[in-house]
Design brief:
Elements: E1 2-8, E2 12-28, E3 41-58, E4 63-74, H1 78-81, E5 85-87, E6 90-93, E7 101-113, E8 120-132, E9 135-139, E10 147-150, E11 153-162, E12 165-177
């Protein structure tokens, strides 16, 4: 992990970070009387560079702008790929072809400080995130069956799969006001 922070004159700040993530997983499945998996082992080893870049610019006493770009990586863990568990009428079964997820985000924010004195501050932020290969549960079958008996009850078979992409968007608006000397 490496990070740098740089003041831009007296009005701005630039921060950046870079990280290499590496993960590996190896799971071996023992025979089970309740189900038969079409594979005996799962192996996965992936790595990715992730990072972030952010700026903060104090345009005046009343206005501040924030911008950030970042990326993320999550390797499937043992719960994602190898655990058989029942919850809410669904049973999740292992998937030997699950891949890591990647995130790419951008955020823009603006803060307005009434008169530059901190009596009232309004902050508005918008963001967008592209989620690639998102790990999501989907209906599946095991040995041709879509239902499975587990713990004395039937449950719908699901597995974790990679969705192609998902786009998340959002905004946040907050306000802080100084009502009395010690109450805001």
């Amino acid at each position: 992990f490496a990070a740098v922070r740089h003041d831009i004159h007296s009005k701005g700040l630039l921060t950046a970070g870079l990280r290499y993530n590496s993960a590996s997983l190896r799971a071996q499945f023992l025979p089970d009387a309740n189900y038969d998996l079409p594979f005996e082992t799962i192996e996965s080893r992936k790595g990715a560079w992730t990072g972030g870049l952010a700026t903060q610019w104090q345009a005046s006493k009343a206005w501040r702008f924030n911008t950030s770009l970042s990326s993320g990586f999550r390797h499937p863990n043992i719960d994602d790929v190898g655990k058989v568990r029942e919850k809410g009428g669904y049973v999740i079964v292992p998937n030997d072809s699950l891949r890591p997820e990647y995130l790419y985000s951008a955020e823009q924010g603006v803060t307005w400080n009434l008169g530059g004195r901190g009596l009232m501050e309004v902050d508005a932020t918008g963001f967008v995130t592209l989620w690639k290969d998102a790990i999501v549960p989907v209906n599946a079958s095991l040995a041709g069956d879509t239902m499975m008996w587990i713990d004395g009850d039937s449950a719908r078979v699901q597995t974790h799969m990679n969705a192609s992409t998902a786009l998340l968007r959002g905004a946040r608006l907050s306000m802080r006001a100084q009502l009395f000397p010690k109450i805001s």
